[in-house]
Amino acid sequence: MSFDETIDETELLEHFNHLAPEMGDRDYFHRALERLRGAANGVVRSDQHEGFWVATRYEDVLAIAQDWEGFSSEHGITVPPRESPLPAIPEMVDPPLHREYKRLINRFFTPVQVLEHEEATRAIVNQLIDEFITEGRCDFMEAFANPLPGLVFFEEFLHAPSEELAEVNRLATAASTPNTPSAIDARREMIGWIFGFIERRRAAEPIDDVIDAVLNAEIDGRAITDLEAVGIIQLLLFGGLDTTAGALGTMMLWFAKQPEIAQRLRAEPELIPTAIEEMLRLDGPFAFIGRRATRDIEVGGAAICEGDMVVVSWAAANRDPNEFGCPAEFDLDREGNRHIAFGAGPHRCAGSNLARMNLRIAVEELLRRLSDVRLATGEVHFHPGYSRAPSAIEIEFTPAERES
Questions:
Q1: Which of 375, 309, 240 is nearest to 81 (CA)?
Q2: Tally of CA atoms within 13 A in the half-sphere of 144 that contains its CB
Q3: How confident is the model at residue 386 (pLDDT cuts 50, 70, 90)?
Q4: Distance between CA 329 and CA 332 in Å, rounded?
Q5: Residue 396 burial (C-beta neighbours within 10 Å; 0-12, 13-18, 19+)
Q6: Which residues pair with 52 in a beta bridge?
Q7: What integer is the mean pLDDT of 18-28?
Q8: How far apart (Å, rounded) are the C-alpha atoms in residues 136 and 124?
Q9: Which residues of 303-321 are buried (b: 16+ CB within 10 A; e: fewer)?
């Protein structure tokens, strides 16, 4: 059945649920957001999860993200509110205190700093490819997309034991859907792991990395607390593992379903960064974020009241025809791609440079070493939530030799 045959527009507009299982269907997801964006000036009131607004048009999403005084993240970034023993810092802190936390980590993720890790990242990428390239078939998410961002982050930035990565990756993925029993348990387990990791790092010799910077920081003239340090490391983990894996997965889907894209990029590898930006616009893994209105305010003609929750949809905004011509098409010649796949405003993703480096090197090496990728199974299912990633992608390709 097509989307139009299975959905009632009134049902969608009045009862929209961004966490519903059907949002894991890629076609349904984008068509649902298209309907929301085309209705009621793109700002719709849903009665789900005790009621919330959904903003879907680029102009409105950008305005809400930039107006931290009118739309606070301090009192909830998810709908329904996520149960957690401590907030994710600095995402759940508003300026000006937000800036104090963010400055601690920003200097480790500048373009210049990230490029210092390029050689090591390329080695990790090729090690992962070596593990499956002789087979001619793999689950791309399990074999490559899920482990890569964690391996790079663990080894190059966190300096945590690589043998603990698989469990931390599992917890980060399980925690991505708010308020399910497994997600709540996973988040608690993750926080416990972070506390233990902090204890180990405090007992070890300093190595002047981002963890040392956090543990030795001063916030507003006082020493940082362990709870604050855990909150920052929690966000670094949750913000960088599942989302980058999701981006890698959707990029592989583009290559498998439209092989002419891969062919052009092999012939013109200088276009790979442009292709990555276009794929992030079309299928960014960071789909939604929540904000709470701090005053009565109007957005897109909708009268939002103080205390109302608002879900902004980066995914819907990135396909807004008022901002992007032919928004559902992959266009390597697109000009002015001002996508907001990494968010916008003061809470824009601090790790975007690292994510871009991971994605660029991964695409370069995958295109170089896999010549004819194709899907081995039918449609791919995504896990729904604030970040989206394919659950599995079974691919086939011509086997090749290992390089190490």
A1: 309
A2: 32
A3: confident
A4: 10
A5: middle
A6: 46
A7: 92
A8: 20
A9: ebeeebbbbbbbbbbbbbe
